[in-house]
Amino acid sequence: MPQRSIKGNEKLAKAIKTRRNELDLTIEEAALRAGVGTKTWCRYEAGESIRKDKYKGVCRALNWISLPGDNAGEEFLSEIKEYKSHEAWSQYLADRFGEVAAISFAIGSDILMDYVEEDMTQLLKMPKGTHIGQIRVSYLIDILPQQFYMEYDYEFLYALHALIVWFRKMAHCGTELVVHSVLEELMLYLIVEESRFLMESSDFPLEDGWDGWIFDLFGDTDIIRFLYSDYYLTEGDSYHFKHWMKKQFYCEG
């Protein structure tokens, strides 16, 4: 989405404050998500203008496509159909599962990579072994499986980031995407989930179950059953964190 500048006003200020409260964010948390200082955020809620280079961060902090009163959202919706030129466009996904799958992968991988990089930046300033539950604001803590929160340190996020980059490169080359590990399944699941808001807010024709392509790719829905259903995993379970990086699926021999 192109960065925009927008003149502040009382109506916009009220909308920003209301939206922040809806998301249950403090001013400090919202400011951190947006990449601005708390005083700057307070000025936004007081009706002052938002600088051009801060527009995208404010939208991201509030989970908005665009700010109320701006036409960036309409422009984004018209641009979403141009994702074939995106660096993470997967012709393989488009051919096998349809363009919706390829678009959701491109959008979601952008978002997830941003989230991982934000958390990595914060962990980099902390002692070795610090996990995402110990940083001020984590973009990932609400979307990663809860049982293993204390395992999500810098090294794990580095591995996840490298995996996203690798899959985006394969997508760009039109390579077949085959999932061999739990971490690869989890990454693709999160990519689709993080694309959901923009996909369902777009004017792209979506059918019920548009997001089911990942389960067709996996061959099952075990990722939800074991990692997102309050299921307690022991070390012997294949979906336990200890085994996330092992090749377990679709392995020859």
Task: Outline the structure in words.
This protein has 253 residues and is mostly helical. It has two domains: 10-70, 434 Repressor (Amino-terminal Domain) (Orthogonal Bundle), CATH 1.10.260; 80-243, no CATH class. It is 51% helix and 0% strand. The chain is globular.
In short:
By secondary structure, this protein is mainly alpha-helical. It has eleven helices and no strands.
Keywords:
434 Repressor (Amino-terminal Domain)
What is the topology?
Layout: H1 10-22, H2 27-34, H3 38-45, H4 55-61, H5 72-79, H6 91-97, H7 99-123, H8 154-173, H9 182-201, H10 213-218, H11 222-227
Helix pairs in contact: 2-3, 2-4, 6-7, 7-8, 7-9
Q: SSE string, helix = H, strand = E?
A: HHHHHHHHHHH
Mean pLDDT: 88
* Structural class by helix and strand composition: mainly alpha
Shape: globular
Radius of gyration: 19 Å
Number of domains: 2
Measured by DSSP, the beta-strand proportion falls in: under 5%
Largest β sheet strand count, sense and barrel closure: none
Number of helices: 11
Structure summary, number of beta strands: 0
List segments where confidence is low: pLDDT < 50 over at least 5 consecutive residues.
Answer: none
How much helical structure, as a percent, in the residues?
40-55%
